[in-house]
Write a structure and sequence with these properties.
Helix 1 crosses helix 5, helix 4 (93-102) runs parallel beside helix 12 (264-272) and helix 11 (237-250) runs parallel beside helix 12. It contains 18 helices and 13 strands. The N and C termini lie far apart (66 Å). The protein is of the alpha/beta class. It folds into two domains: 8-130, Response regulator (Rossmann fold); 138-398, P-loop containing nucleotide triphosphate hydrolases (Rossmann fold, 3-Layer(aba) Sandwich). Bound molecules: adenosine-5'-triphosphate and magnesium ion (MG). Adenosine-5'-triphosphate (ATP) binds next to helix 6, strand 12 and helix 15.
Length: 399
């Protein structure tokens, strides 16, 4: 058992007696096994006057209306240091995103295990003090809406290019949880994967994290997808959110391969992203699918300047194709990555980034420019290279 600590003061908002008794049972087991307990009190509404400021506020969304989420921002002003946790029986990505957007910090299962409660209590007790003093790193997600478009290749090479500019301060993460292949592309072991890190978030500080991740010869730290699909199933959207916040507290840039599936976990990553590189190919099926993704981002109210539309495997002479793509998508294509199958396959077969085999090649130059223009300029506070007009094509590309 760990050393005994002061109990965490928890306010529960909800009307489900069953949940409360499960919570109490897990709490007393947690105190016995881990030396961290909690003093649980129920309140009827968010913001009810309390004698003691809660360290953690737990909202049972199943027994309240969703309107309670709208009250969180005001509550946050009243208790700026409280760790706001939501719980509900039927997970849904929309609910989770709604809760996170309103300012919830965390998620707890409706029938929490002792370990799950322990992890949440740890995070709640560290609360604000766990926030590092360095400015948080940027999260760049690379996604597509169709298999084989090149998200893994792009994520790896964006990370490699960033690593040259920010040595030792870049991580690349594989969030294609069921069948991620960053570990194959970079030839790194999967012994320590996303599935392991998310269960240990409470003890993740920069030095521990660096010690468990593999640093690739190209400079970036690599966090592979889980080794087996059944491990992947256990990773929740709340954990992904926690993982990315932890990583951004440790690294200046975190590049995430979210692949081509939109599920709770990848949506949590897209939501956390500062930049979202949306990859497509210059063919009709890809463009049609990309349009659907762009519509989804609009529904999710993503700032248009967060999304960077990139055509992979594009040849300069296909100018007409780009015009038609822009017309079909109703927005400019902001970047093109050249088609060079032989070089890309060589890098994949050698388990490395392009810059390790062809440091002055056109693909490496292309990734360096992409990173300078769409990530680093903004990190350093320079003027934004492009503000996207989603209604029409931008003159920048027309030039
Ligand atoms: N710019 C490029 N030029 C030539 N070939 C490329 C380029 N980008 C990717 N490829 C090829 O396309 C294939 C798919 O790339 P990659 O695995 O990165 O795509 P993905 O979107 O991650 O696919 P998956 O859906 O399997 O995860 C690879 O075989 C790679 O060689
Ligand atoms: Mg892939």
């Amino acid at each position: 058992m760990d050393q005994m600590r002061d109990p965490v003061i928890v306010h529960v908002i909800g009307r489900d007696a069953g949940f409360l008794s499960r919570l109490n049972a897990a709490a007393s087991a947690c105190e016995k096994e881990h030396g961290i307990g909690c003093r649980i009190g129920t309140v009827n509404r968010l913001g009810d006057v309390a004698k003691e400021a809660p360290q953690m506020t737990l909202i049972d969304l199943d027994s309240m209306s969703d309107a309670i989420l709208g009250q969180i921002p005001r509550y946050r002003q009243q208790f700026p240091n409280t760790w706001i946790v939501v719980t509900y029986q039927q997970p849904s990505s929309e609910r989770m995103l709604g809760a996170m957007r309103s300012g919830a910090n965390d998620f707890l299962a409706h029938a929490p295990t002792v370990e799950e409660l322990h992890a949440v209590l740890q995070r709640a007790s560290q609360g604000k003090s766990a926030v590092s003093v360095r400015p948080p790193g940027r999260i760049i997600t690379v996604c597509s809406n169709k298999g084989g478009v090149g998200t893994t290749m792009a994520a790896i090479n964006v990370a490699a290019s960033l690593s040259r500019r920010l040595p030792g301060a870049v991580a690349v993460v594989d969030l294609v949880l069921q069948h991620g292949d960053i570990s194959v592309f970079l030839d790194v072991p999967t012994t320590y994967s996303v599935a392991n890190v998310v269960t240990e978030l409470d003890r993740m500080d920069p030095s521990y994290l660096r010690s468990v991740l593999t640093q690739h010869a190209a400079g970036m730290y690599v966090l592979p997808a889980p080794h087996a699909p059944d491990e992947a199933e256990l990773v929740s959207a709340g954990q992904i959110n926690g993982l990315l916040q932890t990583l951004r507290n440790c690294f200046d840039a975190v590049v995430v391969d979210t692949g081509n599936e939109y599920n709770e976990q990848t949506l949590a990553a897209l939501d956390s992203a500062d930049k979202l590189f949306m990859l497509t190919l210059p063919d009709l099926p890809s463009i049609r699918n990309t349009k659907r993704s762009l519509e989804l981002f609009e529904r999710l109210h993503y700032d248009p300047s967060k999304v960077v539309l990139i055509v992979n495997r594009h040849d300069a002479q296909e100018k007409l194709a780009r015009d038609s793509m822009e017309e079909a998508l109703g927005r400019p294509v902001q970047w093109s990555i050249p088609n060079d199958y032989v070089t890309v396959m060589r890098s994949i077969n050698q388990g490395t980034a392009l810059q390790m085999i062809q440091p002055k090649g056109r693909l490496v130059t292309n990734f360096d420019q992409l990173v300078s223009m769409h990530i680093l300029d903004q990190v350093n506070g320079h003027a934004k290279p492009d503000s996207v007009d989603v209604r029409g094509k931008r003159s920048f590309f027309r030039r």
